[in-house]
Structure to design on (384 residues):
């Protein structure tokens, strides 16, 4: 896939050349899972996999959307009639972005859009943020400039929260917009301050693998809402604004204060230790010692599995099989209950790890996972 192909497909669909092509990557979170609901820290990196949006302005105020992946034809909407809840299906993501831009007072109008993507959808790799951010950048390119990349990420998140109706945190869109190749992005989800942390696995003889389990356990939004409510209740009980304000050194005292509340204690233990792991992994990367981050990834997985309760048998199997095959560390990444796991391994042992995970899935009777190597890629940009 390429910018040129997206431009050619645009012409075939919309019958005229596009004015430009913009792209945004999917992301994988190295560490810092379910910390954003407590205003904590995350450490994502951009995938090499991109979503492309080829676009052209329209004078008649229509938004005409087409995606190669979505099937079906062109979805036609009126830019001035967009409202939360009014658009269903995939078109809500790009339509929501135009709505959010206009809501913020930016003079973006109608457009023809064509979308191509190589980010696997629904695998926990943020194809939704890639689509939103690429769309935001395209509309900014056509009608702007309106704002900078962090600003576009904020509007893309608003589109997903308020227009599509998915209560995601700030990580996905910020990572897709603001990541830098060869770096992980240290993001404080309270004030959105960012720090680029050098991370080049290949330069250290390492490989980072993503294993998409290709399962999605439909547990509904209730699981997310319940944990969010639990973290908020624990913060109130501990008299802090959010669990991010419980220092790691105070964890024993916090757990003691929640004695008798067996439901909240494991949530607090996960969030506080996970925030601590984000800091520790960032420090190791900055010190040029990414190998030592491996055990922290695996500890993060155990915490999500045992304390936060968001893993599933397939994710646990990736982590166990990779560990037995000599990987340095592995963890589920994203919201869990399916989706993808991340494995850090020596480059020399990567093939062995891949075979072991595939073999374990076959032996357990699971569908074969999709396993691929990733390197920290570049965030959103104009590509054509
Ligand atoms: P994730 O972001 O982890 O991939 P989500 O459920 O948040 O999973 O987003 C997936 C949804 O985003 C898809 O169901 C689809 O509606 C939309 N989407 C993502 N990429 C595309 C694309 N290339 N074309 C059309 N819709 C897309
Ligand atoms: Mg998503």
């Amino acid at each position: 896939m390429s910018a040129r192909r997206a431009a050619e497909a645009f012409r075939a669909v919309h019958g005229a050349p596009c004015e430009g092509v913009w792209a945004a990557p999917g992301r994988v979170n190295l560490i810092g899972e379910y910390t954003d609901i407590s205003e904590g820290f995350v450490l994502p990196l951009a995938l090499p996999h991109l979503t492309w949006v080829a676009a052209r302005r329209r004078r008649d105020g229509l938004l005409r959307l087409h995606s190669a992946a979505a099937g079906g034809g062109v979805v036609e909407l009126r830019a001035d009639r967009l409202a939360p809840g009014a658009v269903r299906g995939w078109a809500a993501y790009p339509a929501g972005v135009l709505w959010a831009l206009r809501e913020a007072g930016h003079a973006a109008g109608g457009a023809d859009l064509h979308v191509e993507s190589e980010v696997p959808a629904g695998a926990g790799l943020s194809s939704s943020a890639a689509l939103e951010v690429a769309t935001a950048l395209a509309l900014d390119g056509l009608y702007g400039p309106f704002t900078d990349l962090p600003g576009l990420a904020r509007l893309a998140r608003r589109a997903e929260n308020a227009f599509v109706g998915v209560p995601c945190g700030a990580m996905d869109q910020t990572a897709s917009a603001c990541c830098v190749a060869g770096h992980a992005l240290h993001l404080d989800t309270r004030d959105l301050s960012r720090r680029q942390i050098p991370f080049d696995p290949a330069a250290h003889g390492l490989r980072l693998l993503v294993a998409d389990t290709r399962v999605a356990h439909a547990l509904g939004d209730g699981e997310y809402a319940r944990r969010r409510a639990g973290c908020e209740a624990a913060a109130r009980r501990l008299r802090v604004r959010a669990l991010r304000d419980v220092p790691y050194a105070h964890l024993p005292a916090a757990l003691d204060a929640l004695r008798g509340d067996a439901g909240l204690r494991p949530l607090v233990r996960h969030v506080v230790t996970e925030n601590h792991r984000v800091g520790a992994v960032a420090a190791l990367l900055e010190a040029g010692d990414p190998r030592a981050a491996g055990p922290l990834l695996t500890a993060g997985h155990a915490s999500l599995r045992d304390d936060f309760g968001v893993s599933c048998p397939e994710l646990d199997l990736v982590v166990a099989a990779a560990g037995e095959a000599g990987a340095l560390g592995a963890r589920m990444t994203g919201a869990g209950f399916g989706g993808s796991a991340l494995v850090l391994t020596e480059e020399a042992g990567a093939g062995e790890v891949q075979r072991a995970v595939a073999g374990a899935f076959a032996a357990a009777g699971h569908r074969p996972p999709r396993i691929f190597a990733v390197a920290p890629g570049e965030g959103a940009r104009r590509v054509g």
Remarks:
- Residues 3-196+378-382 form a domain with the Ribosomal Protein S5; domain 2 fold (CATH 3.30.230.10).
- The pocket of magnesium ion (ligand 2) is lined by residues 126, 128-129, 172 (CB under 6 Å).
- The two ends are 13 Å apart (CA to CA).
